[in-house]
């Protein structure tokens, strides 16, 4: 069982992600803004982060960059799950170190496969 942080400010999207991952047996935690997500990642052991881009206080690109430049945290896989669907957004996400970039609305199977892929590496 892995510990997964869902960094998302939309209650609807949080419920959707939780429902998709409900049967996986993973321990799911939620951060409602970028600063809370960063604080949680630095203080608790997580095996994977699912990260929205458009969030209060700190956006997902900033959080991803902070994770990937920290020697202790950079091995944590980051899946960006966002409504920002432009090619330039995806490229910027990759430049910040994201391991995967999915756009909303996301099919449940795509999220499940991405989680499985990055937890098995």
Give keywords.
5 strands, globular, Rossmann fold, 121 residues, alpha/beta, five-stranded parallel sheet, 5 helices
Q: What's this entry about, in short?
A:
By secondary structure, the protein is an alpha/beta fold. 43% of the residues lie in helices and 19% in strands.
Q: Would you give an account of this structure?
A:
- The chain has 121 residues and is of the alpha/beta class.
- The protein has a single domain (3-119), classed as 3-Layer(aba) Sandwich (Rossmann fold), CATH 3.40.50.
- It is built from five helices and five strands, in the order E-H-E-H-E-H-E-H-E-H.
- It has a five-stranded parallel β-sheet, with helices on both faces.
- The protein is globular.
- The model has no long low-confidence stretch (mean pLDDT 94).
* CATH architecture heading: 3-Layer(aba) Sandwich
Q: Order of strands in the sheet with the most strands?
A: 2-1-3-4-5
According to CATH, what is the class?
Alpha Beta
Query: Shape, please?
Result: globular
Helix count from the secondary structure assignment: 5
CA distance, first residue to last residue = 14 Å
What oligomeric state do these chains adopt? single chain
Spans of at least 5 consecutive residues whose pLDDT stays below 50 are none
Number of domains: 1
Beta fraction: 15-25%
CATH homologous superfamily, by name? Answer: Response regulator
Structural class: alpha/beta
Could you say what the CATH topology is called?
Rossmann fold
Main beta sheet strand tally, sense and closure: 5 strands, parallel
